Amino acid sequence: MAIDLKKSLDAYQAKRGVFRIVEIPAMQYLMIDGAGDPNSAPEYSHAVTALFSLAYTLKFASKKQLGIDTVVMPLEGQWHAPDMESFTTHRDKSAWFWTLMIMVPDHVTDEMFAAAVDAVAKKKDASPSLSSVRFETLDEGLCVQTLHVGSYDDEAPVLADLHDRFIPEQGLAMRGLHHEIYLSDARRVEPAKLRTILRQPVSRVG
User: Fold this and answer.
1) pTM of the entire structure?
2) Rounded-to-integer distance, Cα 143 and Cα 13, Å
3) Which of 71, 147, 153, 172 could form a disulfide with 4 if both were Cys (CB 3.0 to 4.6 A apart)?
4) Contact yes or no for 6/12 (Cβ under 8 A)
């Protein structure tokens, strides 16, 4: 059986209706940057294809070379905009900037990543965004997260409550980028049942 890290790592645990303060350890990711509406920007779909192609190539290489088989982790995204109300009140997706990511286990090395890029690049259907993918460590530290169940467009009230009530009440301040973890495959799950972890890095005030 392949190891499913999202079931064992505390960073991937969240409950609906509960804001939880959690310390997120440094983890390594496949990452790619972009901008625009994720529903219509071609570079968004190219980025997703590039990430999953590399993630599965690394999975198979890890199993063959190291005897370690892990489930490919879910797609994640860091989001920001000049006006953060575009996430809550206005939902102006054309103004969004994003970094899409897939977490990869600690045993994956720079050499394995480079070999995976070379292997995927040789395929006829390789994503045009492949060369833009980077392999980096992200250390988010103290965060608040919760589980949202429902359409992505219904996240706004949850985020407003998180930003405007919970974080200030806990003596915290927002920092870093809004982070989402997509536990459901939007191609196969109806919008009302989508499960998404919403995460906000924070710092303690005073």
Assistant:
1) 0.93
2) 13
3) 71
4) yes
